[in-house]
Write a structure and sequence with these properties.
This protein is of the alpha/beta class. It has 18 helices and 14 strands. It has a six-stranded mixed β-sheet with strand order 1-5-6-10-12-11. The chain has a five-stranded mixed β-sheet with strand order 4-3-2-13-14, with helices on one face. It has a three-stranded mixed β-sheet with strand order 7-9-8. The two termini are about 35 Å apart.
Length: about 500
Amino acid sequence: MDAENVEEKEKEEEILNKQSPEELQAEAEKLKNAANEFFKNADYVKAIELYSQAIEKWPRLAAYYGNRSFAYIKTEMFGLALTDATMALQLDRSYIKAYYRRASANMALGKFKLALKDFEAVVKVKPSDKDARAKFNECGKIVKRIAFEKAIAVEEKPVSETIDLESLTIEGDYSGPVLEDGKVTLKFVQDLLDTFRDQKKLHSRFAFQILLQIKDLFKNQPSLVDIDVPKGQKFTICGDIHGQYYDLLNIFKLNGLPSVDNPYLFNGDFVDRGSFSVECIFVLFSFKLLYPDSFYMARGNHESATMNQMYGFEGEVKSKYSSKMADLFTEIFNLLPLCHCINNKILLMHGGLFRDENVTLDDLRKVDRNRQPPESGAMCELLWSDPQMMCGTSDSKRGVGTMFGPDVTKKFLQKNKLDYIVRSHEVKQDGYEVIHDGKCITVFSAPNYCDQMGNKGAFINITGDDLTPKFTSFEAVPHPNVKPMAYANPLFGLF
């Protein structure tokens, strides 16, 4: 038994010595019931806190770990969810929900073979469970499809080279936005904003033209983009948007439309979860084409094929356009820059810092990003990492990336002569958070995330001569009656 387990055993015995088992179980059950109420009201953070207290009181009941695992899944802490589900099964191999929880977490991490094993375990125990059988079959299809795609993988033409724009005829009754001489103009973008607001569609010919042009633009950018903000000029930093188009419009209403004099950076996770991701991404791409040197976009962990298959973007693109367009988005997302540096003083990335304390900005410039995100290394950490309050690094609560402490942030900034970092990736109640002695800032711009978290969104303003961040928080605005995850594979209703 290692030192950590010994310490946990001693703590458990100390608790048991103070109260009778009956008293401890009764208190734990009260805490669990209270946690369930917070869970029902989508206050998952409070639910996790109370489930944890229940576990401290009575750490021998599988259901407590299973419940907390589900709350971790809801907050996208898949690594912790896996740990809890596994612990629940160690306590009770017959606790079926734990197999579901572990399968859910593994699927969220793209580990479909591991998920399939757990679904199979459920089916064996409950062969008449239709829901379990459906999930087992669907997961099996995904595993077989991935294996088939690997088996037939050959050097094929990129999707972008197979698109015939001339074959995409514009119907006579089309009244939506039109590119002028094939180019994005301010009028086009303004018309596009209104068209999408009214739940109308951009013609596929213009959609494909935008995607082909943006691919060429991103292809020629480095993995780390340097940004110069002149003295006196305002610059706006936004975090996750996650397909919440009407909240994106509200940002532009509050802070002004992007322009040469009103530059923006959107720090990843433009799509998935929210069901207006197509609208968000075409507006953002259009602004990038219109103002290539005043509008910036960084890749997030959701700009990847696995995430898009699970959380709705692929299904939304296929529903509103075609499979070919979904494949083209994957090609484009591989080319998005991974991070940005403002005035050589602020580094911005979607996720966070690194387990390797020797990483430099030059290392980031050399990252080969034209691929799906790996499971480790600098590219993975730029997209997936999260800060922690304790010093050092630790395994990620998400199961991917690294947790990094204030000392890691301080050393990185000193080594690279930076003032602070800005990252996104995490829901924050006010839309932002400042930690690590003011050196690590999180900004998240999707208010009432997934229509249930109750958080505010936020954006950051700085100026070229005053890099002190100024925060604006905002509430969610109404949107059409389309639920989040409306286009996700039904299998992912687990999340």
